[in-house]
Structures are given as structure tokens and as C-alpha cells.
Amino acid sequence: MPGERASALKRFEVLKELSDAALIDLAKSCVWHSTPSRKQIVLANEPSSEVYFVIAGKVKVLLYSAAEGRPVLFTTLGPNEMFGEMAAIDGRPRSATVEAEEDCTLAVLSREQFQRLISTYPAFSFAIMKQLAAQVRRLSDRVYEFSTLSVQARVHAELLRLAAIAGERCGQALLSPAPLLVEFAARISTHREAVSRVISRLQEMGVLRREGSDIRILDMDRLRKLLREEKGE
Question: Is 160 exposed, middle or buried (0-12, 13-18, 19+ CB in 10 A)?
């Protein structure tokens, strides 16, 4: 069992430089448990500080607006991704709520054990710094989009972002499954009706096509050109 769990942790980018012995030690230090879909794992502003490794399933990181209770989705995390490191580093309350989008298997590490890893293994510490830097860049892009772009442009930008994750082939990309409209809207801080209108327009233009629960982007170059025009580039 420790060997199997260590192998699961080895797949995480931030843990790849750890030795097998260190991974086995880490696996033993974690609390492993299953979390059902839709369960809240951490709450924004709560004073917890554990670090979570997603072994299986998906979670979503979001905040709810105080006035309407409308969710603003920051990101979705899947297998071999982690969350909770910010509170473990600075000891402050959680900056966002994390909910299970699917049934999940999580490995949970205490703040003390996490900080021990940082102080003991420089490669792990550097990997965490790179991950935090990537988050800052991603959030900077989002702030720019929310502040300067129309809803239509934000839909285009999010489609390109999802396509980059899915992978482009021959100028096309398949989003499978595509986010639900309400989830898509939460990603870009708008309403599902607005997203639906933009998606319908792109279908009429031949830029994308719905295929059941999937969306196939048929012309990536044209979608990029639309976004550049909207940015005034």
C-alpha cells in the first residue's frame, strides 16, 4: 500500500524530484480519503492550512458573491494537481472555496509536514515557487480580461484557454466534455444566457459546432483573430 500511494504521488509535477524513500515517507504522512461529488472541501476565510493532492476526480476553486450568492469560478483541478499551499505557506485563512466536482480521492498533508518538505528538499521548494508564479500570471490575465474585455471577447478567450488544455489538432480542438453553460459563465463572471448567445453566434459563423455534450472548435485561427480584433491588436 505505501508503495502504491508513493507511485501515485510521483505523478505530481511538484514531487517528481523527490526520491522513492521521500515519497514513501510523504505517502505515510498524508491522510488519504474519498470525497463525494458536490461536497465542500475547504471554505473561503476558514482558518485551515492543510495541503491537498488530487489523486483522482476533479475539484473546482471558486468564490460566491455576498450579494447574490453567484459563483465566480477561478479554475478546475484534476488528477495530479494540488491546492491549499497558499494557506500552508502564510498561515492566513483560505482565499477561496474548493468543492468536489466529481467523486475524489485526496491525499491531505498537514501544514507542518508541508513546510518540512519545503525546508528539506530545494527542488520541491522551487517547484512550488514555479506553480505559484504560474497562478499569478493566470490571475493577472483574468483581471485584465474582466477589466477590459466585453463578454463576447471573454467567451472567446475562455474557449481558447480550454482548447489549449484539450490540445489543438489540424487547426481544431475538441472540448470533451464542454463545460456546462452555467459553469462557463462562472469562469468569466457573467450569466449563462450571455454565454449561450455568443456560442450560438460562433456556430452560425462556422467557428465551432456542438456535438452532444462536446464542443468542437472548427477554426482555431479564426477564433484567435476574433479575439485579437476585440483587443484592438
Answer: middle
- Lateral strand order in the sheet of 104-109: 31-35, 104-109, 51-56, 81-83
Q: Tell me how far apart the alpha carbons of residues 189 and 155 are, in angstroms, rounded to a whole number.
A: 10
Rounded CA separation 218/221 (Å): 9
β-pair partners for 97:
62
Peptide bond into 93 cis (omega under 30): no
Q: How many CB atoms lie within 10 A of CB 176?
A: 12
pLDDT in tens, 161-170: 999 989 999 9
- Reported for 160-169, long-range contacts at CB under 8 A and 24+ positions apart, including other chains, are 160/220, 160/223, 160/224, 160/227, 163/217, 163/220, 163/223, 168/220
- Rounded CA-CA distance 202/217 in Å is 9
Q: pLDDT tens across 10-50, in order?
A: 999 999 989 898 999 999 999 999 999 999 999 999 999 99
Whats the size of the chain, residue-wise? 233
Cell representation of residue 64: 460566491
CATH among 1.10.340.30, 2.60.120.10, 1.10.10.10, 3.40.50.300 for 2-146: 2.60.120.10
Residue 175's φ and ψ, nearest 5 degrees, are -95, 105
CATH 1.10.10.10 occupies which residues in the chain?
A: 149-231
Determine which helix (DSSP H) or strand (DSSP E) holds 138, and give its type and residue range.
helix 122-148
Spatial CB neighbours of 187, under 8 Å, sequence gap ≥ 6: 73, 158, 179
d(CA 14, CA 124): 6
